[in-house]
Design brief:
By secondary structure, this protein is an alpha/beta fold. Helix content is about 35%, strand content about 10%.
Length: about 250
Amino acid sequence: MVKKIAYLTIDDAPSEDMKMKVDFLESKGIKAIWFCRGELLSNKANQEAVIYAIRKGHIIGNHAFDHPHFSKLSLEECFEQIKKTDELIDSIYEMSEIKRPIKVFRFPYLDKGAGSVVEQGWPEDRKEHIQAIQDFLKRLGYVQPKFEGITYRWFLDAGLLKDVDVQPTYDTHDYSPFQDEPTHGIDSLEKVMERIEEDVPEECRGLNYPDSNEIIMMHDNAFTNRELSNKIFFAIIERLIEKGITFKLPETND
């Protein structure tokens, strides 16, 4: 058993099962940051689920409008993806009659504007593009929450706590079983669960490492099999609790 703190982040919300997942997390005493896609926030039923989550004390984050790779967009398109979703989230907080506690953002595919994270640093020809997006997020009031106790060298060396967007220390790969070519060969619930037991802290698999807290990434998405997607979601949470992980929300810099 490993005693540590984790911050739960859930991408690709809201799904039609979001309210059920909120209730499940509430039964475990868990609050999460739900990174929402703007295109999904336009649906009234989805808005009701998001308002429900807000009123339960969960945080709603921005996950762009229609989940593009930011490295494939112009800066103007990147800004529009962020701003349209930001305005939708503002309106939903207004409908919930709860003050928006913090503005948090996660890039689709973790693509900050030059593909996924690279330990060697960003390509020179993309640095200006990446920085312009970070600056735009700051102008809109986005901030990195106070994630305490993250000590992984690979994470700190990449400067991921210094940027505005939220990156994970642990990717559950709950989506991999639904891919045509599953990432790392993770093609089943069993392999998702096996990954949780691995102990390679400096290769993004540190759940069994006691000296760093975690920012965990999951997904609120039925993918191609809603029943299996939900089964994986619940199984991951149950196993993390069994391991002794305690979930909390980060401070919101109020």
